[in-house]
């Protein structure tokens, strides 16, 4: 069932790679793997969409961790216990939710249209969360996948085609561990001195996922209970970077074993919803959810628990100004719909980016990330630093706007994105300038961008 001999051959091959690697190949150790340059598409994209979807979308209560909160943690969450008592018959088990994961209204083209309209440049779908259910026909997850059960369709493959037809990059989230997998629990009981789960389930399944769908991003998770040596992370990444069909374009994050995050991998996620206090020296990404209480869909969601558009835009801008990418999550329903309020948020972000995207896409941090000027502003710059962008979230009371950090030149030109024609300005001493603003038009995102060409 697990094709163990094939996987052992793969491990032997990875070992040979590590031993006989030359300057053009990556060895199965962190020093070598961490030296791999990040493919440029990722940094230039800046904005992506995260999608948490699985069997947890059926109970849709609390969060995507419902199964664990109900039957894994000790003591169980009384709210989850009460929810089951009030809504399901005695003895109902979590796997019985899977047949109700119908996805009957899932239209990958409509999803891809929404993602494209959001201005996102990449999409990351959950291929397997901690519950172990795969949203693709994994032979290593027999009868616990979206083809054998539930939707009876390949959700990963269907969305891959639709997303790529719109020239968006496609990535996959994958949990290393599974809460209740007997193989994993046996390895855990043995203090991870055995690797039956890794060799018979995780790595052959993850490898097949790469070979089958060729994701350009692998968003690893569920790593924290065991070291990277248990997960064989470096061996897998050496194969991924050297010999996989996506070796030249694939991007990975930093969740490959206890103690790895913010230290090893492609780019850094660090903690969920992480924001650094100062400009990091390594590429990073902030994952954020429109629903502030959950990544998966919740039936009892409240409007007050959602991020509004100005909050999302401000979070996006500040993340990009600090050199990060912004991965914004939505949780579809079990029947395959992106809730209207989530769709509205995504389309509105796209509307703001249609005007202000020049300050976001393919930008890089400026020498100063933020300052308290006439109102607080956040800076980005283009790749050649011939243009600097100052984004502000508070509408000025008057018609003059002072910036103190830019140093002007005789060729400096100032414009307001979305407004035609250059603006009048005068230099300040020893640095800075005062700008005469036009009437600031309403922005649903409550954020506006000044473009300064030829400043220092």
Walk me through this protein's architecture.
The chain is of the alpha/beta class. It folds into 2 domains: 356 residues, TIM Barrel (Alpha-Beta Barrel), CATH 3.20.20; 84 residues, Immunoglobulin-like. Helices cover 29% and strands 16% of the residues. It contains 13 helices and 15 strands. The strands form 3 sheets. It has a 7-stranded parallel β-sheet. Strands 8-9-10-15-12 form a 5-stranded antiparallel β-sheet, with helices on one face. A hairpin with a 5-residue loop joins strand 13 and strand 14. Helix 6 crosses helix 7, helix 6 packs parallel to helix 13 and helix 8 crosses helix 9. The chain starts with a helix and ends with a strand. Its main location: other. Its EC number is 3.2.1.51. It is found in: Lysosome. It comes from Esox lucius (Northern pike).
Present the secondary structure layout.
Layout lengths: L3 H17 L9 H4 L6 H6 L1 E5 L14 H7 L5 H10 L20 H10 L4 E7 L26 H10 L4 E7 L6 H8 L6 H18 L3 E5 L6 H4 L1 H10 L8 E2 L31 E6 L19 H13 L2 E7 L9 H17 L13 E3 L3 E6 L5 E6 L7 E4 L9 E4 L8 E3 L5 E4 L11 E6 L3
Parallel strand pairs: 1-2, 1-7, 2-3, 3-4, 4-5, 6-7
Antiparallel strand pairs: 8-9, 9-10, 10-15, 11-14, 12-15, 13-14
Helix pairs in contact: 1-11, 6-7, 6-13, 8-9
GO molecular function: alpha-L-fucosidase activity
GO biological process, one term: fucose metabolic process
Catalytic activity: a neolactoside IV(2)-alpha-Fuc-nLc4Cer(d18:1(4E)) + H2O = a neolactoside nLc4Cer(d18:1(4E)) + L-fucose; an alpha-L-fucoside + H2O = L-fucose + an alcohol; a neolactoside IV(2)-alpha-Fuc-nLc4Cer(d18:0) + H2O = a neolactoside nLc4Cer(d18:0) + L-fucose
């Amino acid at each position: 069932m697990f094709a163990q001999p094939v996987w052992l051959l793969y491990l032997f091959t990875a070992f040979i790679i590590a031993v006989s690697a030359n300057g053009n190949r990556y060895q199965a150790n962190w020093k070598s793997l961490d030296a791999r340059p990040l493919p440029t598409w990722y940094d230039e994209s800046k904005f992506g969409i995260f999608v948490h979807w699985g069997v947890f979308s059926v109970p849709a209560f609390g969060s995507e961790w419902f199964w664990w909160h109900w039957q894994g943690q000790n003591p169980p969450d009384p709210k989850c216990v009460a929810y089951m008592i009030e809504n399901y018959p005695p003895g109902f088990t979590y796997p019985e939710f899977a047949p109700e994961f119908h996805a009957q209204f899932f239209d990958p083209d409509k999803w891809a249209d929404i993602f494209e309209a959001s201005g996102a440049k990449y999409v990351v779908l959950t291929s397997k969360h901690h519950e172990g259910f795969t949203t693709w026909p994994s032979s290593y997850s027999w009868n616990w996948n979206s083809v054998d059960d539930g939707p009876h369709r390949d959700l990963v493959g269907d969305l891959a085609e639709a997303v790529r037809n719109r020239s968006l990059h496609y990535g996959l989230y994958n949990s290393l561990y599974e809460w209740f997998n007997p193989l994993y629990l046996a390895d855990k009981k043995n203090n991870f001195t055995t690797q039956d789960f890794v060799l018979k389930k995780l790595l052959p399944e993850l490898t097949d996922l790469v070979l089958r769908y060729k994701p350009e991003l692998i968003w690893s998770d569920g790593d924290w209970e065991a070291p990277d040596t248990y997960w064989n992370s470096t061996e897998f990444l050496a194969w991924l970077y050297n010999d996989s069909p996506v070796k030249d374009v694939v991007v990975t994050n930093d969740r490959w074993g206890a103690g790895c995050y913010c230290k090893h991998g492609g780019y850094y996620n660090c903690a969920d919803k992480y924001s650094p206090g100062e400009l990091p020296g390594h590429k990073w990404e902030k994952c954020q959810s429109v629903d502030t209480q959950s990544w998966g869909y919740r039936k009892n969601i409240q409007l007050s628990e959602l991020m509004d558009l100005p909050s999302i835009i401000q979070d996006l801008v500040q993340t990009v100004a600090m050199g990060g990418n912004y991965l914004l999550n939505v949780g579809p329903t079990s029947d395959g719909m992106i809730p209207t309020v989530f769709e509205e948020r995504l389309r509105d972000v796209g509307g703001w980016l249609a005007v202000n995207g020049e300050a976001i896409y393919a930008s890089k941090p400026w020498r100063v990330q933020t300052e308290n000027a006439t109102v607080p502003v956040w800076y980005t710059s283009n790749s050649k630093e011939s243009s600097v962008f100052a984004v502000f979230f508070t509408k000025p009371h008057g018609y003059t706007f002072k910036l103190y950090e830019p140093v002007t030149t005789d060729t400096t030109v100032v414009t307001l994105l979305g407004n035609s024609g250059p603006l009048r300005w005068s230099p300040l001493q020893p640095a800075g300038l005062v700008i005469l603003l036009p009437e600031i038009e309403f922005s649903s995102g409550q954020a506006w961008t000044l473009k300064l060409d030829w400043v220092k």
